Amino acid sequence: MIFRAAVVAIAVAVAAALALLPDPAKAADNPVVTNAGNPLVIKMYDKAPFYAPGKVSIKAGESVRWENDGETVHSVSTAASNAQNPKDAAMPKGAVSFDSGFIPPGGDYSYTFTVPGTYRYFCLPHEKAGMVGVIIVKK
Ligand SMILES: [Cu+2]
Q1: What is the share, in percent, of the chain residues with pLDDT greater than 70?
Q2: Residue 17: inside a domain, yes or no?
Q3: What's the rounded Cα separation, in Å, for the pair 3 and 39?
Q4: Domain residues for 58?
Q5: What is the mean pLDDT of residues 11-20?
Q6: Which of 20, 29, 54, 66 is the most interior residue, by most CB within 10 Å?
Q7: What are phi and psi of 94, to 5 degrees?
Q8: pLDDT in tens, 66-85
Q9: What is the CATH number of the domain that holds 60?
């Protein structure tokens, strides 16, 4: 019985410690990350925060590299025709849509942004789960 009580006590302590960790879902709402390097690296995970960081700011002419750190395929797309919710795909006027195709675990995809404005992109398999991101490209 003493052993069982100790196990319960440890479980309670672990649960309490986990409760103090930041909520992953809220990490997606992180403030805009700026000047984080060129290319700026965004990690892709199988659960929230799917794209980390989810909202970044770069300068025109800089690149972003998405790296799949998950165990399933992910993608990066601004092609509104493939979006379940058209609001998940957006580009400034004059920009051409891009689509990485499926990026396998361990794979990556890079894109250089030349047209300033706000880009909203999504992952084809996980858009509905909330795998969406924002890139703000400044002049
Ligand atoms: Cu995905």
Answers
A1: 77
A2: no
A3: 53
A4: 24-138
A5: 48
A6: 66
A7: 95, -15
A8: 999 999 999 999 999 999 99
A9: 2.60.40.420
